[in-house]
Amino acid sequence: MIDDNSILEKFVLENDCNFAIDNVDFKTKEDILEECRKQFKNYTVSGLHTCLCCLRILTRDNILRKELTSEFFLSQIFKYAFEYNCNHEYSKTSLEALKSLSNILFKESCVIEPLKAMGLIKSVMESVDILIETENNERLLLCLKLLFLVTALNSASRQELIKSNALQMLMKIVKMKSSKITDLNVSAEALKVVYNILYSIRDEDVTKELGDDIQNLVVMLRCILQDPMLNEFISYALVSQVVNVLNIIPKHLYKHLLDGNFSDHATDNLIKDSAPENKTNGISSIEILIDFLHSQLKLDAGKESETASDIRTDERICPILNCLTRASKSNRRIRKFCRLKVLPYLGKDVKRLPEDGDSIRN
């Protein structure tokens, strides 16, 4: 007779990479769900891991996923998602629970309030605080995805995160994780949560209250843009998230994209002297944003048409244009630099037609 663990293990082996789970007999999936229910009531560590793998797979089924939103399954998944233990087997189990929780939350927003009642935000924040100093990026990324989903789908959660000083913690993650190429996706995910939080606090009084934090955030984003590691924009996701956040900061804070020692009379010289390999001048972060815009425009220049997998042109270009427009409107020096960079003094270039070449002017 085949034991329950073997049945679950066989299901995982056959369906772990099966994202078209509808092709599996529904009765089989129901039986697996029932076996998982039994496992939760009387489990072993290894059996629990297999059980949670099964639940992660079942979250792909539109009908059975709703079963997983029941109080019993939701409370069990939540419990093991945040049961952090140095034991390797427990760590794997916790990871599977986090994946299941993320999948359920993404498709079934009705679970947000029950999860919040269980202490979701507090548990995620505590986990993030532990994980910042570790190399466990996979778990940290899942926690950040949960925060992103909750803040995107539930406006009240954004206010809770503001009160719990989440902005400072997220800034710490971005600062620490943007120093390694392997960690850039973690920084990008953290900035997505920052965007959601800032989107909800554009009210002047709240913005004033968090003014120092947001100012520090802008300075940090400037440093990210100026980081030589991001030359050639190797991480589109991170740079685009930087742009998104810059799009919703108060306009008066754009001046912090300029280095402190930058002087207005230097603008014309910067246009002449700036070079891609030496972006250390006072306005280099603005130049990098223009270069980023240029790089995205050049992507389309070589294509006859967009494929289904391409990010739409307007989705790539418009945020950068909007960011540069807001920055230019807010600061005279930025405005002058952008004008001279995009529409430079022609000089000898007057002999060349505007449509000839691939510079930002063209």
From TrEMBL:
One annotated GO biological process: G protein-coupled receptor signaling pathway
Gene3D superfamilies documented for this protein: Leucine-rich Repeat Variant
Keyword entries, A-Z: Chaperone, Guanine-nucleotide releasing factor
Record-stated family: Belongs to the synembryn family.
One annotated Gene Ontology cellular component of this protein: cytoplasm
Entry keyword Heme: no
Annotated protein name in UniProt: Cnd3 domain-containing protein
Example GO molecular function: guanyl-nucleotide exchange factor activity
Cross-referenced InterPro entries: ARM-like, ARM-type_fold, Gua_nucleotide_exch_fac_Ric8
